[in-house]
Amino acid sequence: MREFTYHRAASIADLSPDATIIAGGTNLLDLMKLEVMAPPALVDITHLDLGGVEPEGEGLRIGALVRNSDLAAHPVIRRDYPVLSRALLAGASGQLRNMATTGGNLMQRTRCPYFYDRRMACNKRDPGAGCAAIGGVTRNHAILGASDHCIATYPGDMAVALMALDAVVEIDGPTPRRVPLADFHLLPGDTPHLETVLEPGEIITAVILPAPPGGQHRYRKVRDRASYAFALVSVAAVIATDGGRISHAALAFGGVATKPWRDPEVEALLKGSEPSDALFREAADILLRPARDWGENQFKIPLLRRALIATLRDATGMETAA
Ligand SMILES: Cc1cc2nc3c(=O)[nH]c(=O)nc-3n(C[C@H](O)[C@H](O)[C@H](O)COP(=O)(O)OP(=O)(O)OC[C@H]3O[C@@H](n4cnc5c(N)ncnc54)[C@H](O)[C@@H]3O)c2cc1C
Ligand code: SF4
User: Fold this and answer.
1) Distance 137 CA to ligand 2 centre (A)
2) What CATH number is given to the structural domain containing 16?
3) Is 57 exposed, middle or buried (0-12, 13-18, 19+ CB in 10 A)?
4) Cα–Cα nearest to 32, from 5, 68, 72
5) Which domain holds residue 34?
6) Is-contact 151 133, C-beta < 8 A?
7) Helix (H) / strand (E) containing 235
8) Distance from the CA of 107 to the center of ligand 2, in angstroms?
9) CATH number at residue 237
């Protein structure tokens, strides 16, 4: 690990474009130990007043420092936004969730093994260096949203549920603003080192949830082992039916794309339709139309199809065996 300075922020005014924020440290410190990230200056935000979960309008304002464990266990989240609670509990381990924060979780870096190995070419780590994953081991890589410059997945669970809940990210800094989560993470294109709209010197202060959507909430995560592992495929679903038809459908996907993934065409197909296997197969066809595999991750295409159909059957009360 390289030398760095450490400063504990007393207010947001203490942030600077030259200092890297540290919150729970569960991702950043690992990357610093491997020298994948080598920030010369750290600013610790854990003493800022960003820890509460408060009502806002008909929804909720979740402070950026709320720990993943506390958020998953929060009674209002469990009652009104259970997809979020389930996604959080499907992520990492108990110890990690006790440290990990809402803001840090949104900002977590990819788990592409080439990104972690400084001997390998990686456009995300060293812009312009190339991408060792393309033509390499691609089992965990993206089938949606990739470019010829980067095929790494966004690895998190929480953000996938937040996408299905239409969450908004509150940003403070020189230009305070709110950004829909759908626009917060960037596609890699030819600049995979740029992962979010956050500028140097800016901080996530909160995540805003709109009014509870009601309906059935599901978070289905397929992974290599149950104790803890990143998603191979995950599906967050909020589905309501009325009079035998789907009245609300919000679906987001993890483990398969370069950012938390949502496809409005899939939801438009489902809304107003009667649940059926034929409908769900068509939804999967639409979702997978832009999918591209890189060899070893080909299995994610049928896996995502099956995970989506099984989740929709479950959420609409159909028998689970497809
Ligand atoms: C073994 C292991 C297994 C894991 N498994 C999973 C899993 O299954 N699912 C999952 O979703 N996650 C998983 N994680 C990732 C874990 O959830 C993240 O490490 C954690 O959420 C990061 O939060 P943190 O507060 O510790 O962030 P930090 O490590 O402190 O920071 C991470 C990044 O966010 C930035 N940052 C932090 N807070 C802010 C803020 N408020 N505003 C702007 N930038 C900020 C930091 O500068 C840094 O770049 C796993 C991690 C480990 C180590
Ligand atoms: S997939 Fe992205 S993160 Fe992985 S090596 Fe290629 S450029 Fe780097």
Assistant:
1) 11
2) 3.30.43.10
3) exposed
4) 5
5) 5-44
6) yes
7) strand 233-242
8) 17
9) 3.30.390.50
